[in-house]
Amino acid sequence: MNPLTGYVFLSALLFAVGLAGALTRRNAMLVLIGIELMLNAANLNFIAFWRYGPHPEALTGVMFVIFSIGVAAAEAAVGLSIILAVYRHSKTTNLDEMDSLKG
Amino acid sequence: MNWIVRNLWLIPMLPMVAAGIIAVTKRKGRMLAASLAIGSMSLSFLLSVWAFAHVVLLRNQGQIDLQVWNFRWFQFGNEWVSLGWILNPLTAVMVVMVTFVGLLIFIYSIGYMAHDENFTRFFGFLALFAAAMLGLIVANSLLLLFMCWEIVGLTSYLLIGFWYSNPRAAAASKKAFLTTRIGDLPFFLGIVWLYSKSGTLLFYNGGTGCLEPMSLEHLVAQRTTIGMCVATGIALLIFCGAVGKSGQFPLHVWLPDAMEGPTPVSALIHAATMVAAGVFLVARVYPLMSAHALVHGAVSTSAALQVVTWVGSITALFGALIAVAQYDIKRILAYSTISQLGYMMMGLGVGGVSVGMFHLITHAFFKSLLFLGAGSVIHGCSGEQDIRRMGGLGKLMPFTFATYAVGMLALCGFPLFFSGFWSKDEILHAAHVWDLSQIPFYMGAFAALLTAFYMARQMYYVFAGSTRLEVGEAHGDGANATAGMEHEHGPVPHESPAVMTVPLMTLAGCTLLLGFLGTPAWPWFQSFLEDTRLRVDFGAFAREGMFPVMISSSLIVFLGLGLGWWFYGREPVDAADAPDHLGRRVPAIFAVLGHAFYMDALYDKTFVRANIAFSRISTWLDRWVWNGAVQIVRYGTLAFAHMDSFIDNHVVNGAFDEGCEGVSRSGQILAKLQTGRVQSYLKVIGVALIVFTALLLWRANA
Amino acid sequence: MNGSVRMAGTADQIFVLVKQWLMGYVPGALQPLASAVLSVVPVLLVFPLLFAITTVLERKGLGRIQNRYGPNRAGFFGILQPMADGIKSLTKEDIIPRSADHLVHLLAPLLLVVASFLVYAVLPIGRNMVIANLNAGVLFFFAIGSMVELAVFMAGWSSRSKYSLLGAMRAIAQMISYEMPLVLSAVVVIMAAGSLSTVTIVTMQATYTGIWPHWYVFTPWGLMGFVLFMIAATAESNRSPFDLPEGESEIIAGYYIEYSGFKFALFFLGEYLGMFATSAMAITLFLGGWAAPFSFLTWIPSYIWFFVKLLALIMAFIWVRGTLPRLRMDQLMNFAWKFMLPMSLVNILCAGVWHFMAAGFVRWVVVAVLVAGTCYLLSQRLKRGKRVAVRTYRFAS
Amino acid sequence: MTVTFLILAGVTIVGMAAAMSLRNLVHCVLSLTLGLVGLAGLFLELDAQFVGFTQILVYVGAVAILAMFAVMMTRGAAQQQESRPTSVRISGVLIAGGVFLVLAWAMCHGLMTLGAPVQPEAEVKQIGVALMRSYVLPLEVIGLLLTAALIGAGVIAMEEKRGAR
């Protein structure tokens, strides 16, 4: 089997795991972690395609992942602080209970 | 092109930069402000000396000594507005004088303003003034000159009103500003006219400048509707500016009031430099002033110069007459300044640039000396300005007395050793040989007599006799400056500190020496300005009425001094409230003179009243005529708006409401899908992903 | 590699030669594994030994500073004290709190020690003596170093004790705050060397002008970077005066209060290994790594130089610990965010200025003035509103 | 398909699956960390050294710690109510499975026609040069984004003053 296939399958699996977590868990934090997982699965894809792609010298995949990691870090920081703020307000991190926009 | 010519702008720019830095300095940065101002001024002085030396060198080599450096400032339409600076003997002499006198006055100010809490601001204004004045001098463009002219006016306003909490100072500054503006308006019209006729405002620009023959011929050739040639019209308009700034006869009223400012300001701005700017302006545009004569050759004096002469001589006599009956030490000097400025104008009119300028230079030195001496007296008397309350200061303030005496003798024109003698004599001689009329000469001679008389009166009042200073009655400008020193020094008059007396002595020295640069026997100054050959010729004294004029003017001076002694020295003034000796004899005339011919009252009754009446009419028009029109428009608009709102309410809104209803109903249906749970949304996205990817792949495979 | 081996002396390369000789007996298939083992095992042996030596050194040194003897019973001058300590901690009962999270409680010390050992992979101990010459070696060092925080958190959280949790929170807050100046102060060297590889960085410093070496510490920005790095390293390894997380008088021992026996010893080991690692990194980045301080001293083997420098820095750590009082939490944070961080950023700027100016005296003066001026201004800001006086010791003399 | 790949893939999958299924939030975060380290290992296996180490630095050193702090501050570890209706869980897992199947299908049909891999050169220096040359604008943007996120996160998470609202 082509080594790329393994990586891509792994990436799809990771994506599915992240999605499953994001869909089933009630805790907002875990949903956020699930989203991070999906992002990382995409990163793995980028790196794999860069490594086995026809133009590795262009560094596109690596660049994409670097920026993606930066965005993910920002996302995690803002997301977690939003969860904190919501928790402080409604004393819960349960997504089912956060269904109102009213403060 | 020589370095100094290219970088002549540095001379005004250094004080300008200093002013900028001082403007942002905190009030506490007194030493910083003073050292910046004085440092920049010293550098400017050095540069000026360099420029002067450069010009002298060129003159001695016989090369052309008019150098300009022009550049384009901005473009409008197809026209470029150019600015530039000029270095010629006139500029060189003036920059050296202004920077030198300015530097001394700056130094003097440290001592004089030492106790003022706005010390920093004062030096900022002074530096700004110096920058503008120097810019005015080096400008090679009437536009640049006018800009600096206005900045000078602004700083004058700021400095007269420096103690703005004093209502008299505030009023005086306003008066000065408005009065000079009256002169500046025709000046500006003259500039515009000149630009429209000649197409350039540069003075000299290699043959195309507005003061160069080509342009002058063009100006003289044209005639206005009333038959006057254009050059004369422009020259007269420009002269109006000079009248305002130099305090000539109809517009002189602001200058005595300007004495409300601090004394160094009076010395620097209202005696030595700014008021001389008008004279300088006339000297600068002298080719334009004398254009008619220049081109037609036949008539020796142009119409513009005749006006200058008459205005100058009237002012000279007028100022001297008023000065006789004043009691305020600074006002006497102010009227004396007006009178001397009149002399300068007269000199320009009858004798040309060098005659007027020579008196300007010498006057700058001895008048700033007198003002600084007066400041020292005021300082020593803890703010007293009334000469009736002084007396006997000669022994208490020896340095001030000695230097003041030098200045006073120079102003009177005491023969041989004092610069005023030589410069005034030059003017009188020129007036004597004027071919149109002898009246200016007699007016000037009478003014000289009066000058000697009132200066003698002032000397006897201030320095002779016994002290009549009253404790605790200090008022006037010094009251502010010296508010904090009363308890320090006590009421006894005292000599001023060295920082004030040293500039006095320097100026006194200059006053003594400067006259020898322009004696008829060795007229270096005249030859320098007018590019004639210089040689030592004692025979010049014998030339065409020179000697008689010298003798007669000396006699006039002695007569004036003698009269002064007869009235005031013979029996010393001993009481502060005793009536004036002269006033006792001719009370009516004395009162008229004391009120300055009631000029202020006249202006108040005529111009100010008229202005108020006009503004009342304007208000009435505004309220009833214009406002009525506005009201009609308003009602029309309202009616239209009502119609519009009717359409809006019933046509547009109806359709919109229907639309909104529809959107709202469909929204209610869609809202059922909106559970508020993120995960259900995510699920939908997931399903959509599956479906669309599946569809895509299906299509691709099929 | 052979060329450079021949270039340096046999004494210098003795360990490399021995390894090559041993590799000759290994079959080809096992070569990579054997090479790794032969590189790793010595490190695993040498640094714990150094740890043992350092404990006794530290206790003796502190004793000297504090006017007492320190350990002097076990062995000659107490030299066997670490052995006694080790035996004691091995035989002690391993107590685990009943409510603790057992797995995490067990994993925390292991993760700490593993992470601490991992970073040695990129530290060049001598010429040609590095386990892995990675392209991104410095990055590797900091990445693995950040794992320590996780271990600390695991230890603090799994113990279910408020002291350990508090200690862990303090430790993490402190480590995160000081990690940024730590990394940023290393950036100047990376800029100068143009490489993230530790080997390249050392090689670039191992040249000489006359007898003087080209260590980065001998430039204004290098000196400032070194000082910042060492301060941040002290904070990272939770040592005095930054020992709030384990301040004995406040929260007893911080995050490892609930550990006993050998796990406690592992924590101890991990901390000391971390300290050695950061010191070794400081040496690599700023002090020329294994390079000799003067060109005429190059005949002394490179690894000896490395360990001499390491010991010198350890002595400095001990000295600082013995002399400085502990900071308060607010002082700690203020110092990190208001001094260390801006200073390291300015230092990077200065390194840039250095890079783009022509070599010479002017460059020296400009950069030195920049660095010193910023340092002065920032310290003035930090001191603002505080009374600072010279400490007086009334009873010490 | 090397042994290293299989081990790392196993570690990653196990870690991530555990992160998504464990009950204790702290355990979730810890296993997430394990999964991310495994992913970093995969990056290294793919010769992307810089990205791998950055992954460890950012995720283990920052994101995991941040998540830990968030867990501690929301007492997420204390409350253990994971009592969702089974139907919700099943539907979620089904959708995720569907996505995986679709992706796998796409891979089987799409992209397996690439040529022989070239050993890429991804020196750190090259990455740096690329970041400073062709990718300088994205770099600046990401810097701005991170600054904004830093400030924004601080503002959002800051304790609201009582009575300020």
What is the CATH architecture term of the largest domain in chain D?
A: Up-down Bundle
The largest β sheet of chain D comes out as:
none
- Which parts of chain D are unreliable, with pLDDT below 50 for 5 consecutive residues or more? none
Measure the end-to-end span of chain C: 57 Å
Number of strands of chain C: 2
**Average pLDDT across residues of chain C?**
84
**Shape annotation of chain C:** globular
Total count of domains of chain D: 2
In helices, the fraction of residues of chain D equals over 70%
Radius of gyration of chain C: 22 Å
Taken as a percent bin, the fraction of beta residues of chain D is: under 5%
- Multimeric organization: heterotetramer
Average pLDDT confidence of chain D is: 81
Secondary-structure element order of chain C, N to C: HHHHHHHHHEEHHHHHH
Order of helices and strands of chain D: HHHHHH
Give the total of beta strands of chain D: 0
| CATH topology type of the largest domain in chain D | Four Helix Bundle (Hemerythrin (Met), subunit A)
Q: Write out the strand line-up for the largest beta sheet of chain C, numbering strands in chain order.
A: 1-2
Number of helices of chain D: 6
Can you put this structure into words, describing what you see?
The complex is a heterotetramer of chains A (103), B (702), C (397) and D (165). The longest helix of chain A has 31 residues, at 60-90. With 103 residues, chain A is mostly helical. Chain A contains 3 helices and no strands. In chain B, strands 1-2 form a two-stranded antiparallel ribbon. Chain B is built from 30 helices and 2 strands. In chain B, a hairpin with a 2-residue loop joins strand 1 (67-76) and strand 2. In chain B, helix 4 (89-112) packs antiparallel against helix 24 (498-514) and helix 11 packs antiparallel against helix 17. Chain B is an all-alpha fold. Chain C is mostly helical and 397 residues long. Helices cover 65% and strands 1% of the residues of chain C. In chain C, strands 1-2 form a two-stranded antiparallel ribbon. In chain C, strand 1 (208-209) and strand 2 form a beta hairpin. Chains A and D meet through helix 1, helix 2 and helix 3 of A and helix 1, helix 2, helix 3, helix 4 and helix 5 of D.
